Amino acid sequence: MRVLEVQGVTKRFGGLVAVNQVSLEVNEGEIFSVIGPNGAGKTTFFNLLTGIYTPDEGRILFLGQDITGSTPDKAAKLGIGRTFQNIRLFGAMTVLENILVGRHIHTRVPYLHALLRTPLARKEERKALEEALSLLEYVGLLHRKDELARNLPYGEQRKLEIARALALKPKLLLLDEPAAGMNPKETEALQEFILKIRSEMGLTILLIEHDMRLVMRISDRIAVLDYGSKIAEGKPEEVRTNPRVIEAYLGRGAAGGAA
Ligand SMILES: Nc1ncnc2c1ncn2[C@@H]1O[C@H](COP(=O)(O)OP(=O)(O)OP(=O)(O)O)[C@@H](O)[C@H]1O
Fold first, then answer.
1. Alpha-carbon distance 85 to 44, whole Å?
2. Does residue 202 carry a pLDDT above 50?
3. Which of 47, 125, 137, 147 could be joined to 142 by an S-S link, Cβ 3.0–4.6 Å?
């Protein structure tokens, strides 16, 4: 099944074309990476998928439904979860509270019930708490539940951010540079973790990442952006050896060792 279908999407900022006629398809259960040099348009592309920006041209289909120009809230409710390049946890909240905040869109209690703390509201609260605790156990952060998010080691903050996105029960998870700032050991643990949630939670994953070792090891397919345009797509081995990709990363003349 096709989870995501992007058709000729363009986003301009004034005269700058940040994303230029990009099309791609992501199938259920895939780990699909979007790579490219700095400023290639990767984050803007994610922002188009999650409704932060509306494309100037093109269409975005999620599970067959047209979500072009949707809002971030709607995209989350439909099942698109994401993390950000710069960690966006609530540092002054506990680990558990960060998960509960992430989960709120699935709470179906009417406002008045919540305000009056009716039995319905309390039942929902209990359910939310149980689910949050079991998610923390699943990701290995239960022992940290009462600590402030900002006091966690860096690798665990990243993991908590992913866990918060998972609390939304997404079908598609967008990870924006999850390995940024990690040491090799943390990156390896992250790799295991991403593979685990993909298979055990039935997720489809779209990944932006600069760590090429991680990208090459973990991706089923890769798309390469350069100056907003998709210049290559394929399996890791195909992309790694593609002269246009090598050129985009290393500059003209690098491909094939030609001068
Ligand atoms: N809100 C904005 N207003 C104007 N220009 C923007 C805006 N957001 C991004 N850009 C520009 O669009 C281009 C693509 O930026 P984007 O952040 O999407 O690239 P990226 O591939 O994610 O880069 P990096 O790998 O450095 O994070 C860049 O030239 C950037 O300066």
1. 12
2. yes
3. 137
Please tell me the distance between residue 98's alpha carbon and the centre of ligand 1 in angstroms: 28
- Which atom of ligand 1 sits closest to the CA of residue 85? 27
How do residues 121-179 score in pLDDT, each as one tens digit? 778 788 889 999 999 999 999 999 999 999 999 889 999 999 999 998 999 999 999 99
DSSP three-state, residue 61: strand
pTM: 0.88
Q: How far apart are CA 21 and CA 15, in angstroms?
A: 15
Return the CATH number of 2-257, one of 1.10.3720.10, 1.10.340.30, 3.40.50.300, 3.40.80.10.
3.40.50.300
Distance from Cα 177 to the centre of ligand 1, integer Å = 14
Residue 218 in contact with residue 28, Cβ under 8 Å? no
Domain ranges of the chain: 2-257
172 residue type, one letter: L
